[in-house]
Amino acid sequence: MARIENLHNPKFNKPDINIEVSQSCVLMKFLLENVKGKNRDNFKTLLNDGQVSVDGEVITWYNQPLTAGQKVKITWEKAIKTHYPGIRIIFEDEHVIVIEKDAGILSISTEKEKNKTAYSILSQHVKEQSQTNKIFVVHRLDRETSGIMIFAKNEDIQKRLQENWNDTIIERTYIAVVEGSVDKDKDIITSYLRESKALIVYSSKNPTDGQKAITHYKTIKKNAKYSLLEVNLETGRKNQIRVHMQVIGHSAIGDKKYGSTVSPINRLGLHAQVLAFTHPITNESMRFDTPIPKSFLKLF
Fold this sequence. Notes:
Helix content: 10-25%
Radius of gyration: 21 Å
Strand content: 35-45%
Number of strands: 19
CATH topology of the largest domain: Pseudouridine synthase
Distance between the termini: 39 Å
CATH architecture of the largest domain: 2-Layer Sandwich
Largest sheet: 12 strands, mixed
Mean pLDDT: 89
């Protein structure tokens, strides 16, 4: 049996709960078996609000693997989430900021748009604490891609994350809605990508013709019109998923640039669902995730 310890939280009448894991399982199963009076939806709400942690790390993914000896904590105080139009801050410390970006918001400014970007919003956010504070771009999401991003709060952290990206990033999982019913339930796509002067990325099988790109996918749901895919990046090239979906003949919906002919939800069918990384200063494993957009699920 799991060992349960109640800890008094002075801000709430209800005490926090600490539970020690006795055998390997996934988080949702563990919570359902060890915390009485709550159902799956209750736990999903607690997870989404940052009220569940494992060994001190806030976990939002209900299928998080657990091993014997770990400690699961449930607190009744919601984690602070700062909302701005188009973005939500889901984690912030003195080194990094993790956000969820809406579709339609640029990651950084362009010649046509300089103010309503994730970068500009976060720059203003940190300057409210001190006018000398700055924000630094680590990676980007396309304007019409929603999901999780990380920004650095100083130049040294930016450099550490970018230069050690492949070692630092533990997981990058996207959800894609693509045209048609994919033949293979899972596959690995490998090719070489290069960008033209017209800013279109092309795929080639020639190793001398671009940077190697590797994409893993598996099918979550499909029907005659669309397929819902979980996509993991082994490499992080510009437009990689969009180009690789075109390569297999199933362009992401709403992606006219890379072959799509339909736009049933009036946006690109791509969402950055999971970002897991090793914190550049504390070396803690951190994992953040968001639900699949409801507009995606309505197609199935």
